[in-house]
Amino acid sequence: MSILSLRRINKKYGQAKVFAVNEVSFDVEEGEILALVGESGSGKTTLLRLIAGLEHPDDGTISLAGQVIVQGKESVPPHDRKVGMVFQDYALFPHLTILENVTFGIAKSKGNPEQLAKDTLKLVGLTEDFKKYPHQLSGGQQQRVALARAIAPNPRILLMDEPFSNLDAMLKDQVREEIRQIIKKTGITAIFVTHDTKDALSTADRIAILHKGYLQQIDIPKNLYETPVNPYVANFFGKRNELLATPSEDGFYTSFGFITDLEAKKYKRQVKLLFRPEHGEVVQREGQQLSGKIVKVSYFGSHQLVKISDDEGFRVTIRTNPGRIFDEVERTFFYLWKYDIEEAF
Ligand SMILES: Nc1ncnc2c1ncn2[C@@H]1O[C@H](COP(=O)(O)OP(=O)(O)OP(=O)(O)O)[C@@H](O)[C@H]1O
User: Fold this and answer.
1) Which GO CC terms are listed, alphabetically (predicted)?
2) How much is the pTM?
3) 42 Cβ below 6 A of ligand 1
4) Parent domain of 287
5) ipTM of the complex
6) Pocket test residue of 9, 10, 21, 46 for ligand 1, highest count of atoms within 8 A of CB
7) What's the pLDDT tens digit per position in 14-44?
8) Residues 188 and 254 occupy one common structural domain
9) Each residue of 112-146: pLDDT tens digit?
10) What is the rounded CA–CA span in Å between residue 146 and residue 162?
């Protein structure tokens, strides 16, 4: 069931010439984790602030948990929306202990606020540092306090702005997994903003990708990566190779050789074969494969990227396992096991 629904949301700031958010519509399902991704200035934070009520759209409707919270000029004020927010810098009160930080937002709630704060801190994995101050905690721990503070009032939805950007690379993988598990354990619906595709692919159930304020695609990570709706989305998740090819009855002629493919006869004019580095395989045997000269091998620990050039110097990149040893300038064979076909012109 959808808990949040945005319909044709537009937002332009003051005298700006272009809209920060353009005609954006989507639904978020209950219990889902949605990542909002896009390059800098694409409208991610604006969208989050519109949902939180920190900005008001020029047009559009927003409904949360069955209640219309924005329509035309009317809107429910932020404190009545029951939205939890985790800010990029965590925004903890430096002069309050972590227990006081979490109790602060629920002080007026029924029952025993301090016990609820303690229980929520335990839920996020902080069991004994209740009396410490934020500066005495690591970045990852501070983030968990911010998360506890946001979820303690039992919000309808949790919004997080760049939650992983202040963490170093070593910590990031671990924190992503922990945060995902905590959110899933509570069953809360969450939306987080990130410009890092790894954050989105590894943490979210679905990803919404924005470009210049327009929603490009919203789907599960695998579909965004494997079946992007346009070149912008495809390239956002890692560069694709683009190889020009001439179709014939039984395959494609390329500058690296011939690829047998009966799909080719559907095309009348030159096409582009689009493929990611992991959709090719470098092989030793000669056969129905493509061939070229290895011009560069880059080692990344978990894999290698091999740049292969045709006779004219045009290059494609193929990913291989890290154990293979290649000589640069070696002639090699490779094949593509997956590619998209697009009209070239
Ligand atoms: N308060 C503001 N006043 C005027 N323009 C703004 C304001 N906030 C954002 N903008 C503009 O709106 C557009 C979208 O900005 P927004 O911050 O939503 O993008 P973003 O995708 O979150 O970017 P980043 O990743 O850099 O935070 C940008 O062109 C930005 O310059």
Assistant:
1) ATP-binding cassette (ABC) transporter complex
2) 0.85
3) yes
4) 241-343
5) 0.95
6) 46
7) 988 999 999 999 999 999 999 999 999 999 9
8) no
9) 888 899 999 998 888 877 899 999 988 888 889 99
10) 13
